[in-house]
Amino acid sequence: MPHYRDEAIILRTHKLGEVDRILTLLTKNHGQVRAVAKGVRKTSSRFGARLEPFMVADLQLYEGRNLDTVSQVEQLSNYGAPIVADYSTYTAASAMVEAAERMTRESSSSQHYLLLLGALRTLASGAQPSSQVLDSYLLRSLALSGWVPKLDACANCGSIKAASFSIHTGAVCCLDCDIPGSVRLGEDGLGHMQALLIGDWESVSVSKPQVRSSVSGVIAGYLQWQLERGLKSLNHVERV
Asked: Of 60, 97, 117, 161, which residue is 20 to 30 A from 236 by alpha carbon distance?
């Protein structure tokens, strides 16, 4: 069976039998991979602690018929410890990896891996509010998957004074060209979305709480519309 080596973020784990574990991985070069880590639940396992959610590892695997098998592990980053130490950070990270799993099942690129890696690093550092890191990640990952929100001008007349966002189309409109079902966020709300999309944390940090809350709801709705189902983890995220 051919071996291959890749960097991976552990998205999710499941128990298998008495001592094994099934891992859902987002790799840098091979997309989403499901693999078996044999014996990792034994107390004597050399690398069981390196294969927990939110951790980054350099893995050697060999291909299987249904599941690949992990044969070697070298830990690259342990974001798990600081993430699980804080509830709001943990729930945001859980929503991120659930979104990553959903959006990379069929296809992904190294950009998906790098985007999630950067988001987890930022979360673990505590440099930005966890809910805002989550919203930024969700918008960017949607854009990478082909659902790019068009936030710069009204989709109908081209006016730069857009005020509403359409969850169904990802487009914005001005007051004179209101799209049925669009959510009125105002210039402040749309400006906040633009800042989240490009990672302008200076602008994000000065946004008002009510603006952040409204935008978070719109992003969650836009994500649910595109994925045709919401994320379970979002129900537990603390919004700030």
From this structure: 117
3-78 CATH pick, 2.40.50.140, 3.40.50.10810, 2.40.170.20, 1.10.240.10: 2.40.50.140
Please tell me the CATH code under which domain 82-236 is placed: 1.20.1440.120
Do you know the residue count of the chain? 240
Query: Cα(75)–Cα(170) distance, rounded to whole angstroms?
Result: 39
Q: Are 42 and 49 in contact (CB under 8 A)?
A: no
Helix axis angle, 87-103 to 130-144, nearest 10° = 10
Residue type for 209, please? P
Q: pLDDT, tens digit, for every residue of 38-89?
A: 877 776 566 667 788 999 999 999 888 889 998 888 999 889 889 999 999 9
pTM of the model: 0.91
